[in-house]
Automatic annotation (TrEMBL):
InterPro entries: PriA_3primeBD, PriA_3primeBD_sf. It holds the Pfam family PriA_3primeBD. GO terms for molecular function: DNA binding. Transmembrane segments: none annotated. Residues 16-93 form the Primosomal protein N' 3' DNA-binding domain. This is Primosomal protein N.
Length: 125
């Protein structure tokens, strides 16, 4: 049995501990129950077995939050005084099986600009 800290998406609550029979990567989007209602959350960390009983993770979505998204959300939560779940709710998760997108790179044509004397002084500043 594996135990995880789960941040509830859009909730002001702090992270809660849930369990699952398999290993889950950090950043996985999951479904769970909280007080007999459905909720969604993000796996923040794996933890040791707690001294209290935990609820199971109901479903694992094919979506995840990247390390960069989680770190940005942690900064936002600390800076703006909100929960991690509220900050993470602002991000869009990535699909687990996504194809890399090739970005087209275009070279910029050379630009011949004549700068005035005051513009040259500002450029050299």
């Amino acid at each position: 049995m594996f135990f995880y800290q789960i941040s509830l998406l859009g909730s002001p609550l702090e992270s809660l501990t849930y369990h699952h029979s398999g290993s889950l990567p950090i950043g996985s989007k999951v479904a769970l129950t909280l007080s007999n209602r459905s909720a969604e959350g993000v796996v923040i960390s794996e933890v040791e077995k707690p001294l209290f009983s935990t609820q199971p993770i109901v479903e694992i979505f094919d979506l995840f939050y990247s390390d960069t998204q989680i770190q940005s959300a942690q900064f936002m939560a600390e800076y703006y005084g909100c929960s991690l779940g509220e900050a993470l709710n602002l991000f869009v998760p990535y699909p687990i099986h996504h194809e890399p997108v090739e970005v087209a790179h275009h070279e910029r044509p050379p630009v011949n600009i004549t700068l005035s004397e005051s513009q040259l002084k500002a450029l050299d500043f």
